[in-house]
Every structure is written in C-alpha cells, then in structure tokens.
Design goal:
mainly alpha
Length: about 400
C-alpha cells in the first residue's frame, strides 16, 4: 500500500536580471537537494494549497486567439483602461483583491508558504522520488510568488518586480533545509540541473502576470506533475501571449522564452523544436515557414480579477450582483468577511469579465458562469513519457 507523508502544512479552514540568472545557473545544486529515492512511495499532502487555489483561482479556459473589443472612455471621464487587446482575456486569474489590506487573509498565504518551506526539516527531500520533488519545488515557488505579490498588491504591472536589480526572483527569500534560496535558485539551479534542462518546468512556475504560464486550480503532485506541465505548455503556447506569427519570415514568441534562454542553448533551433511539439492550428505551419524567432511578446499586467482597473469607474459604474458570489462556493475554505467589497464595477471591467465568461461558454467542454468562478476537476490522464526529466 502506498505510504503518504501527511506533512501538516496548515489545512485552510475558516477563511481561508540576467546576471542573477547566470549566477544561479552556474551554481551547483546544494547537497540536500541532489539525491532522490527512485523507489519511494512517499507523497506530500497539499490539501491546504488545493483549498486555497480552488477558492481564489478563476479558470478562463483556452485561448481562442480573438482580440478583445476596444475599450472606450466611460461617460463622465476621458480615462480609458489600457490593455493589450490580444492577451487581456487570456490566462487564469488569481483573486488578489481579497488579500489587499487584509492581514488575516495574507497570513493564510504566509502559513502555507512557511509550512511548505519547512517540509524538508520533517522529511528530507532525498526520501522522495524525483517526480515528487519536482511537484514540491513548483508548489513552493508558486506559493512564494503569490505571497510576495499579495504583500505589494495592488500593483497593475509587475515588470519592475520580475526583472532588474530589485527583482523578487533574485532575493534569498526562502530557507529550505537550512539553505538560503531565491526563486531563481529553484528555477535555474535545482530544476534546471536535476531535470536535465527540461524546458517543461518553466510552464509550472507562475509569474503573476498575464504574459506568463497559468496558475492552476490545484496543486502539482508527483503523480500528475508532467501531465499538468504539458497541459500548461499547450495552453500557453497556443495563445496570443505565447506565440504569434508576425509575417511569413518572423515568428513572435513570449519574452518568457528570452528570460529562459538557458533552457534552449541553440535558441532558435531548440525553441522551434520545442514549440513544434505542442503548437496547433495554422501557427504550426507558420512557425515551420518562418526564418527567425523574435521573443518580444509581453503582458506584464498582474493576473488579478478586476482590481487594477477598479479606480477608473465613471458615472456608469454598475452594481454587479452577478459577481457577489465570485468565490467558489463548493470549496472547503472561505475567505474572511473582511475581504474587499466587489459590488461596483466600471463598464470597462464588466466588459472584460463578460468577455472572459463568453469565451468560456464557447468551449465544448462546458460553461462556467461568472457567479461560479469554479471548475470541475479534470480527469487526470496517465503521466506522459517523452519530455520527462530524469528519475
């Protein structure tokens, strides 16, 4: 019978720079994180993280590559919400609004982060399989990113947070098994080296921006980690924020690939081979015909639900009863009553939310209304082989 390590990571109840990257890449994997047990049947329990994600993540569905309608200035103001129309309706959303100025909710994030960080003090990581370790590192990375963004939210754009001298990715914000780590250490040292430079890992690492890989409604697990990474890769690559054919010569891709060029040593050739594995539709043919890849697609907008636009409400700001129940009602965790009010929306925000809902409704897999903000759990497929890292 399979053993389970129930590391009690606080079960949520009640409410729930290039130089830095280069240095991380050149570093050796710290000794506590080098080894693994290929025969291990131990697993880590992520019920607390699952509960959080199920409650505050909105799944927007796969991209249909349609541009959003133009947003016009509202009555009573000349101000317009500035958005990237090609990408604004893409990517899952995280309900950062309920953490703003709310110490209790922020403590929920911090407790989950701290408990995950301390797991190796309870059970050394070398006792787990390589797949279980991969899920652990991705989950720790993501909850840390969520916590860091929640502490500075509301911030409409996160470029300054993710690149440059003050990047949260390069600061030693974690201590795992006594080893100080940055998020870049996790990505460019531990994951890159322990998983044979497998580019699939980048799709699990949430960046907090529309222009990055999705945050999922469930935590990663060792059993399904590769299936979920491939799912995230498929979603991102087949979206406007991931790829776009600029001309018969140039194929545009996300700047995410430029920031992760170490995973593609012969950048154009390796990235082309990688993308061809997952691209669908006419973009597949267009990439094969292109002679150059340009990594210049950006959308640094934070993946909140509506907060970065809320202050532009004009005289037509409306009472949106449809969104009052926007937290998933079937989750085992609930947000504290101190959460921000979401009773008034500008027409621009309502237009954006309605477009997200309409896009989801058009999917053959079913519909999700704005009121629900939830998604029935997908039936997991068996772990794919192929692009898998070392075991």
């Amino acid at each position: 019978m399979k053993k389970h390590i129930f590391v009690f990571t606080f079960l949520v109840c009640g409410f729930f720079s290039i130089s830095a990257v280069a240095n991380a890449t050149d570093s050796a994997v710290p000794d506590p994180f080098k080894r693994f047990d290929a025969d291990s049947r131990l697993t880590i329990d992520y019920r607390d993280l699952d509960s959080l994600l199920d409650t505050v993540v909105l799944n927007t569905g796969r991209s249909n590559r349609k541009k959003a309608d133009a947003i016009h200035a509202q009555t009573g103001t000349r101000m317009k919400v500035k958005v990237n129309r090609a990408t604004v309706n893409e990517g899952n959303r995280f309900f950062f609004e309920v953490f703003e100025n709310n110490d209790e909710n922020q403590q929920t994030l911090r407790k989950i982060r701290n408990r995950l960080e301390n797991i190796p003090f309870t059970v050394p990581l070398e006792k787990f399989s390589r797949d279980e370790q991969l899920a652990y590192w991705i989950n720790l990375y993501n909850i840390t990113m969520l916590d860091e963004i929640a502490m500075i939210y509301p911030t409409p754009e996160l470029e300054e947070l993710l690149v440059g001298e003050n990047s949260i990715l390069s600061k030693k914000s974690l201590k795992v098994a006594g080893v100080p780590l940055s998020l870049n250490d996790i990505q460019f040292t531990i994951l890159k080296q322990n998983y044979d430079n497998n580019p699939l890992v980048i799709y699990g690492l949430y960046q907090g921006i529309i222009g990055g890989p999705n945050i999922r409604k469930t935590a990663y697990t060792g059993k399904y980690v590769y299936a979920d990474l491939i799912d995230n890769a498929m979603e991102f690559i087949n979206s406007n924020r991931g790829t776009e054919s600029k001309s018969s010569r140039i194929f545009r891709v996300s700047s995410l690939y430029g920031r992760n060029a170490v995973f593609f040593p012969d950048f154009d050739a390796d990235l082309t081979e990688h993308l061809l594995t997952y691209l669908e539709g006419e973009e597949l043919t267009e990439l094969q015909a292109a002679s150059k890849i340009r990594a210049d697609i950006n959308d640094w907008t934070v993946t909140d639900l509506y907060g970065s636009s809320r202050d532009l409400g004009g005289s037509l700001a409306s009472n949106s009863a449809a969104l009052e129940g926007s937290v998933s009602s079937n989750s085992s965790s609930t947000l504290t009553s101190k959460a921000v009010s979401i009773s008034r929306y500008s027409p621009a925000v309502m237009q954006h939310l309605n477009e997200l809902n309409q896009k989801k409704a058009e999917e053959r897999t079913g519909t999700v209304t704005i009121e629900e903000l939830g998604q029935a759990p997908d039936e997991k497929a068996s772990t794919p082989q192929g692009d898998k890292g070392s075991n």
